[in-house]
Design brief:
Number of strands: 6
Number of domains: 1
Helix content: 40-55%
Bound molecules: zinc ion
Strand content: 5-15%
CATH architecture: Orthogonal Bundle
Order of helices and strands: HHHHHEHEEEEEHHHHHH
CATH topology: Cyclin A, domain 1
Radius of gyration: 19 Å
CATH class: Mainly Alpha
CATH superfamily: Glucose-regulated metallo-peptidase M90, N-terminal domain
Shape: globular
Length: 261
């Protein structure tokens, strides 16, 4: 049953309960996201606590009359918090707003061609992460998450926020150690080029398409976000297909205080 009241904003609960998400709601959230329920008990507990903090500090709003129910907010919070489980919630402290649209948005865009002519067009967006600003999500696309394909819009957009912490969307978030700073650029660049080449070969000669959303080949920032979707949602297959990235991501997302899995 969907609770209509926004328990996390009304402060109904006393200090002891305020840091927790109602058990039945949390259980349903885990059940509907197998990649969350398969985490260790310690990680699930930490995720639940983080989600409560996240919900308390973030501001959800529904566009075009969309009502944000508890189930939706907790689902988004749980998926958004997974990438920062080891890093810490402060990675998301540069924004408050999460705007949820009922379906994909049509965003006005313009581009200037070589002759200096400006062309206006609309782009279909399932989500967007603004530098220092809100995250926008299409609820229809949030629901389209796929464990098989490793597709997950919420993780995708929130990983963009991690990438954007240093102000640049380049597929390289601020790295916590010299070792990672040394390994990250060549490992990511090689993987990105390998993927783009395999995709181009498949398109040209009809060979097998590489596993990962082809959108990953559009830019290094998109490759990072798409790879992370698969890393978090479909870890076993990701580890087989991308062992070098698995090792790199493990070292980054584990953060300073999380023991290795
Ligand atoms: Zn993206």
């Amino acid at each position: 049953m969907v609770r209509k009241a926004r328990w996390w904003q009304r402060g109904w609960f006393g200090p002891a309960e305020a840091d927790s998400i109602p058990q039945d709601l949390w259980d349903r959230t885990l059940t509907s996201h197998p990649f969350l329920s398969e985490r260790s008990a310690a990680q699930r507990d930490k995720l639940r606590w983080m989600c409560a903090q996240f919900l308390r500090h973030k501001q959800f709003s529904g566009a075009h009359g969309l009502q944000i129910h508890d189930e939706m907010a907790v689902s988004i919070a749980a998926q958004a918090c997974l990438p920062v489980l080891g890093l810490g919630l402060h990675w998301y402290d540069d924004f408050r707003g999460i705007v949820v649209h009922p379906r994909a948005m049509r965003a006005p865009r313009q581009i200037e061609d070589e002759a200096g002519v400006v062309h206006h067009y609309h782009e279909e967006l399932s989500g967007e992460a603004m530098p220092g600003g809100p995250v926008t999500l299409s609820w229809e696309d949030v629901l389209n998450e796929s464990g098989e394909e490793g597709y997950n819009l919420v993780i995708h957009e929130f990983v963009h926020k991690l990438d954007l912490r240093d102000g640049v969307a380049d597929g390289c978030p601020p790295l916590p150690s010299r070792d990672l700073a040394r390994r990250w650029p060549p490992t990511m660049q090689a993987a990105y080029e390998r993927f783009a080449e395999a995709l181009a070969l498949a398109d040209r000669f009809g060979g097998p398409r590489p596993w990962l959303d082809p959108y990953a080949a559009t830019a290094p920032a998109e490759f990072f976000a798409v790879a992370c979707e698969a890393y978090f949602v479909k870890r076993q297959r990701f580890a087989i297909e991308w062992p070098d990235l698995t090792e790199l991501f493990d070292d980054f997302f584990r953060g300073a205080d999380e023991p290795s899995r």
